[in-house]
Amino acid sequence: MAGLQVPNSASGQGPGGRRRSWAELLAGRLKRQKCNPERAQKLKDSAVRLLRSHQDLTALLLEVEGPPCKKLSLSKLIDCDSSEIYANHSSSFIGSTLQDQASRLGVPVGVLSAGMVASSVGQVCTAAAETSHPVLLTVEQRKKLSSLLEFAQYLLAHSMFSRLSFCQELWKIQNSLLLEVVWHLHVQGIVSLEELLESHPDMHAVGAWLFRNLCCLCEQIEASCQHADVARAMLSDFVQMFVLRGFQKNSDLRRTVEPEKMPQVAVDVLQRMLIFALDALAAGVQEESSTHKTVRCWFGVFSGHMLGSVISTDSPKRFFSHTLTQILTHSPLLKASDAVQMQREWSFARTHPLLTALYRRLFVMLSPEELVGHLQEVLETQEVHWQRVLSLVSALVVCFPEAQQLLGDWVARLMAQAFESCQLDSMVTAFLVVRQAALEGPSAFQSYADWFKVHILHPPLVPSKYRSLLTDYISLAKTRLADLKVSIESMGLYEDLSSAGDITEPHSQALQDVEKAIMVFEHTGKIPVTVMEASIFRRPYYVSHFLPALLTPRVLPKVPDSRVAFIESLKRADKIPPSLYSTYCQACSAAEEKPGDAALGVRAEPSSAEEPLEQLTAALVELRSSMTDPSQSDVISAQVAVISERLRAALGHNEDDSSAEISKIQLSINAPRLEPREYTAVDLLLTSFCQNLMAASSVAPPERQGPWATLFMRTMCGCVLPAVLTRLCQLLHHQGPSLSAPHVLGLAALAVHLGESRSALPEVDVGPSATDAGLPVPALFDSLLTCRTRDSLLFCLKFCTAAISYSLCKFSSQSRDILHSCLSPGLIKKFQFLVFRLFSEARQPLSQEDAASLSWRPLYLPSADWQRAALSLWTHRTFRELLKEEDVHLTYQDWLHLELEIQPEADALSDTERYDFHQWAIYEHFLPKSSASGGCDGDLEAACTVLVNALMDFHHSSRSYDHSENSNLVFGGRTGNEDIISRLQEMVADLELQQDPSVPLGHTPSQGHFLFGIFCRRLQALTSGWNVAARLQRQRELLMYKRILLRLPSSVLCGSSFQAEQPITARCEQFFHLVNSEMRNFCSHGGALTQDITAHFFRGLLNACLRSRDPSLTVDFILAKCQTKCPLILTSALLWWPSLEPVLLCQWRRHCQSPLPRELQKLQEGRQFASDFLSPDAASPAPNPAWLSAAALHFAIQQVREENIRKQLTKLDCEREELLVFLFFFSLMGLLSSHLTSNSATDPSKALDVCAAVLECLEKRKISWLALFQLTESDRLGRLLLRVAPDQHTRLLPFTFYSLLSCFHDDAAIREEAFLHVAVDMYLRLVQLFVAGDTSTVSPPAGRSLELQGQGNPVELITKARLFLLQLIPRCPKKSFSHIAELLADRGDCDPEVSTALRSRQQAAPDADLYQEPHLF
What we know:
With 1417 residues, this protein is mainly α. Helix 13 packs across helix 14 (261-283), helix 22 (403-421) packs antiparallel against helix 23 (424-438) and helix 35 packs across helix 37.
């Protein structure tokens, strides 16, 4: 057979003396022979027989070839890029060969194949390396390994591969084995990392090997190598495996490996890496060195994305806890005494950034409670590394707001243990922890001085058996302070006891204490508690150091500053010795005469603050440079801590003790003021915040900007919150429209973060007095943003858009409660109001397709399109969901309150646009909207009700300043939005048209008009009483009612028509009730209403009556009813008749040719009678009713000159008795009005003369008038006159009674039985009025004559009345005392002497009858 020649041919020389290869030999035969399947199969069988005779497996594999490759050995197989079909073919071929060879050798095929693959892996790893310590494969190596692993997977699939043997063979080439190869074997399922590690005989050695390779891997990752993504995936998988297997509760090892080795290896490797990192930091690793890169990368494995899927298990938390323990306990070199000296260098700002970054990553997995508890446990059970322990404390209070309370509670427990069990270690730990936490500033923890003074200056209350321990502690503390040359008596009030520097001299500390105390006094208006306590418990320091520093002589300012006010407050509180204060005043006076010498008293030059401000500026610039560099995100917390320190230095604060004393911030919105130093520092902070936001937003949206804004905000809140809010008030309320877009965006974001911390911030009082209810900080911004002019509207839109957009982006993944705390409902409502008002397209209903996505990016661009941004926010899905919350609905009432603020002359809308907007808002939006959503349920009357209440509320709000009676709906010092009043008129007119013609307009007959119901409810809610505040409030409310009624149709007062079955409509009844109960007291003068409301009623009356079947009869009936139901209407018509008559006459004659109705003619006649009476001609008799004629005469008399009055009143002798009594009453009312009303047309002396003249006529004709001073609703006279006179006038009748004392006739006083009763009653009531202070309202002005002053002086009046009574009592007959006992029963103690005289006279013997004959026998 030709096969015998093949070896010779193969081994022989070919042409040219060269040995020909197997392929060359076959190639010639293939060319000569045609393709025959049978021959091909025979050829294959022959080749297999030939190959089986070969004994060297390695050589065999190296010689096997395939058509696409020159050689088909395993080493070449992994290089082959053939198709999958060919690869499978080669694998099966080699697998068959391996089986045959294993059979011949008598070894398992799995062992043989494992050794072969391990050898090939070694060949791949020994290729040329790019680094001295390679852990990653090259591209070529990775390609070869991929082919090799495919073959190994084939062997595994066909049970031809031993994992254990493979692992053992791999460890034989450990020195050349690359870490990436191990990872690929694990990932592709050839052999798991767990199996590989478990198979190593030496756990220590494998741990060291893994440690070296992981360090190299971390270094290459940080060096940004070509295959960094592969390296990160490797590190993540290794860490996940180590954490999962090293820190699981129960071992769950698969297959047959021993259960103890893997957890030990995993823990060992992780611990080696951490110790390496900690040692490197302790040795002072250089920036960007290989070690620094390794440590930085390894600390990154503690982030969530590195832990991957295992983050959902319990293993990461146990791993983090174990890591924290190792951090705190590794290499405990320092003692507690060393820590005391060095801990200031271990603050958060000075701790290595890599270590603080590690802390923050640990904080993600462990809660503050767990961290503090773990720290406590470690300190109690192990030796610790104090630097890392205290740096962890600093990180805790900086990163967790709640850590302050947790640490405070823990320290309290430590102190309790120290006192109770004499545990010195607990006390040392407490001191170290508190000192360290206090280093981070007041925003993170209370000052060390505060905490320290609590234990030394204000010892806690402890049980008696531990009192000695506390006493010893305080004594030792004082001794230690004395050793340090710091006396407790000379210790500063605000001294920084945590400082490691030189001890401050008492004088220097006193100067700082004075500045701090003045600052607290500025913010609170009260003497600081610290100063008050020092004046009592630390008097040596207070008198010897604090007061001399405070009372440094200087040139006093013309306008008293805070220092002057503080000194005066201390003086009033008797906290400054008089001699010391006197010396200070003299020195200040001398300083004014010598300005040059006075300059010596200035403690600090203006330039002294420049250096700290420059340092603050530099720190802020450094922070801003980190905003655009993502790699610097870990150092931001440290930079903010540095800023906090620099800020305190710039403001001269060692500790911000004032923050603990401010429970409410007083802020003047109209006139906010700042000290120059505060102004500069706060402007630096706000400018930096805005710039940082713009820089951060240029690289990341708000939700990915990290916590820098919150940390920055806390720094401002801790040091200068009152100053920050004051500056924000200046910027937003007074300079808002002039702010640029970056300022608007920055301040809006700051407002959001301030709202985020609202629970930790004090309330803000923006009212004129400290008793006003405080506002939370988010609501403050609502108050600062006004919507009045075009500029303020646009600025408010920008700010609201920026604030809401930022909050939605920043907290997009958090609960909606966060949004509620960050933004006030008022801010969201203002945004809705502005969008509706300024953008007509927003008034259309939104469809589901209109929902837009929200992007923060357009807002921070210089050319921000605010309209587009606002509309984008308006259609944003999250914002639309937010608007479904009930408390952020823009209700109809909210809309009215905001719309009333608009100044029409400066509005962004034209008159036409504003009218269209009002029509849409009322009739299309709020009227049909449900009440649950803030609408009116389609009820026009309800819409009117809300509008009227809104008008009233706005009129009384702090936004309104001009409430003068003559102003026409004046709000906020300007004419109110007249368009809203016009809308009310339109709506009321629509309601009038909607009424059933058969029913009186306005409502059902029994209910009347809804407006009167509004007035009634509001009046019931007001405080009742006769004090000035209550009366003024009620009067202002009623004046507003009157103005609203005058702007509405007159039919509101009395209806549009009168029905035969109900001549007096419900509206008339309501108006009469309003006049009798309220307007009579607050809207009337001298027994008459004002002209405007009187004319309005009579016009409405005639309009309604002219629509009835018999107008004249209806008018007569209504006015006749007025005599009993509301007589004040008729007296008002009499007063204003000259101007009222032409209008009514014209109105009547336009519809009727008949004369005026009889009741109107009576008004004419009464007015004519009064005119005739005062004319020189003979007077006509007075028409009926007499009281109406008397009222007309009274009003006419008020217009007569004083010198003619006596002559004119002589005609009263001919008038009817009834007329004189009524005239006397109206004259008494006129006398009181002349005293009560400063602009009264009648002089009090003239009014008194009129009363005297009428009284003289009554006395001359022996007409009784005493009933006028005993009026009640039960008698006819009282029902009439008490409905004409205001209640205040009737209460002051005792004043008029005794003002006429000189006019009383002696015989009349004795003749009338009731005189004594009335006189005593009036006297007792006068005394009661004087005691209550009500007589001060009738005291004469200081500019009047002495005679008049004596007449109106209440004290002199009471004295004269008392003397009159004491002289009258003995002269009165016995019958005059019949009812005196009733008067004295409850008022006898008003004047005991008068009461005694009355009782004595009442009990005396009966009067002897002088004309009775004596009984002689």
